[in-house]
Amino acid sequence: MHRATESTAPLQVTSQTTPPLLVADKPGSLFLTFRKPAGAPEVTCTGITVSLPIGELPEDLVADATDSADQIDDYPKDSTGAQWDIRRDPPAATPTEAWPSTPGNGVENIFDPDDSRYYQTSGRILADTSLTVDYGSTQNISTIDIVTGTVDTGYLRMPPFYLQASTDGARFVDVGQGYYDNTFSLHVAFDSPLRVRYLRMLVPRDAPEPTTVVRQFLINKTATLDAPTAVKFMCTPPGGAAVFDDDRWFKLILADIPVNSAAGLAQLAVTASTATAEDQPLTLDPIAKDSTDFVFATFSCQTPRVENGHATTLHWNGSPGTRYTLSWDDGGDADSVDLHNVTCFDTHELHHTTTFVLHAQPQVSGRTIHHYLSTTVTVEDPDIQARSVTASSELALADDEGDTFRARSEDKQTWIRDAEFKGAVTVT
Fold this sequence. Notes:
By secondary structure, this protein is mainly β. It is built from 1 helix and 35 strands. The two termini are 48 Å apart.
């Protein structure tokens, strides 16, 4: 777990990552949780934006690749069950219907402008079939570029097709000139951006050639388009507003992030908009990336249940060289110990059920990162310390020789053999 610094206003954001430290050049996941600051009045949130920096520097997070945005999966969760809309820039393109492909030439290649990658069907395209692309949410589409053929195979023409768009994936309408025939490539530009979620190439009759090649299927690609510097996730609550009280939270899970190859601390940009102000920055600690796998897991005890006055041994898996602080509260006596480069610890004699918290502090790029795990040891017949004890029927204390104290509310009788009390004992 990565505990991040909490923001001041209007919302607080904390983060966790899987694995505990992201590993350079390996996929990772990020969990961002948004809440109202404790004690603050209710907040009406109209939107949240999370930006993951793209590049190969230590302060970047996402690998600099043309399909970086497409690889990341997003999962919004609201404690109330409300369904937030997630729109990303650059948009993620997912083929929802495609023709069978040849090995190594899958349909995902159509989103890569690299000429060496292309999509090739494994057979003839049949009538009334389509290549359909879902961008995940409604997009503002200014241009559409479709290119067929490859340098190696020659510029094979596409069969005749209709270029169509849809907002819901159920009802499609023609866009551009609608019907295209004998096409090597096409470029469609719109005077006003086309606001749709789905695009498709619908083939009205069987293709004349045994296979078809599609090199590119790109939107918003122009000669002056700069490479994106961040993947932005724009989160909008249903109805355009979400009221955060003390109990409500919103979580954005970003999975399969293609982490770049540079170890270091990546700085995310997070903003929240409210009914009174837009794009207010939220404070979030940098996300740590290590060059090797950082291990911190399976914190447990050798004997999870012990007799009163017995000890046990704690174990965990951890990377070599890591510093730890182990803390506990044994019946009101809080204590802690600093540990270094060890993965076990013998406890003291326990008289109360005790929870141990292990705090790992690895160093990444000269900065200490904090992770926490906990485990509980149950003590049989524990000592009980209480400021006062109230019993509704009967209260009895006993040792090996029998009762030392007994009090009953029924007949209001009290019997004491040999007992000492500090504070009040009340029988009602």
